[in-house]
Write a structure and sequence with these properties.
By secondary structure, the protein is an alpha/beta fold. It is about 40% helix and about 20% strand. The chain binds 1,4-dihydronicotinamide adenine dinucleotide (NAI). 1,4-dihydronicotinamide adenine dinucleotide binds next to loops. GO terms for molecular function: isocitrate dehydrogenase (NAD+) activity; magnesium ion binding; NAD binding.
Amino acid sequence: MTRVTLIPGDGIGPEIADYTVQVLEAAGADIQWDVQEAGQAVYEATGELIPDPVYQSIEANGLALKGPMTTPIGTGFRSANVALRKKYDLYANLRPVRSLGQVPALFDDLDLVLFRENTEDLYAGVEEKISDDVMHSIKIITRQASERIIRQAFDYAQDHHRRHVTVVTKANIMKLSNGLFLDTARQVAQDYPEIPLKEVLVDNMAMQLVINPKQFDVIVTENLYGDILSDLMAGLIGGLGLVPGANIGDNLAIFEAVHGSAPDIAGQGKANPTAMILSACLLLDHIGQTDCAQKIRQSLDRVLSQKEKLTADLGGPASGSEYCQALCQDLKNNK
Ligand code: NAI
């Protein structure tokens, strides 16, 4: 049995974490959960967003499934999510965007995978105040961090028989920083002669994704562009409730949905747990329980093909709990 740290987080986190645990149990996942509290409520009670036992648990297990955590905008503490990714050097952020069931969406049959560099760029947190009226945020791009994420994207493309890799930058304007990322992609691509490298500028990429996303396959990009484009891609298949993520480093991995804590719907029973369930599927893949992950994905496709089982974000009448029960029942029926 694999021991995994489970951090429910805040906002809709505890609801969707509870549903996810139920679904994994119904699918027969061989996981023992080590539940740890972190996030806004813990911060308000203790002054610490991520208390020490949470770090100790993640380090002991090497694996975590995490719900979203709220980050105040503009002021207050820095993002706990960004802090975890930096602390454990979780440099590869994998975000698969795949059409599910019969969910009403702009596109069906979409199957894209985005690799986002997860440790540097404008998210490195290097900011300086020049005066009350002038602030600087420094964009940091290094060859080493660029190379390891680009290699991950090519390795994935090779292992999963993907058609090509698209590198997204703004190298025409930020010639040094984005130029380095692009140059590194061109060099890495030479080691994978059977996988063509496409180059697209980020503004054009946003437009191309909206009008013809099927021209893409595996996408690799810098931190900020990856953050924005993955939300856009979520919108193509039905919304943020559906897109999972993995933050992978050399020694440790944390799995979490792309979406945040959704304070607008928290505690109302409306949250869609699909993204967190699919994040758990990425975890199952990672620890070699791929059959169990596939069983859950097939169940999601079946249940998401029934209009009456869809949650409110997908235009349906079901609560998160009713949807979860439908998934558990489907898994039991299709053992
Ligand atoms: P959000 O992703 O929480 O919500 C955006 C919209 O999508 C909202 O209308 C929300 O109701 C909806 N939505 C998101 N997830 C959903 C789900 N599972 N089911 C149904 N509807 C869903 O983004 P927002 O509002 O910008 O951020 C809220 C908080 O979350 C902020 O404090 C932000 O910093 C934090 N955040 C945390 C992340 C993490 O923990 N990894 C990632 C992104 C944001």
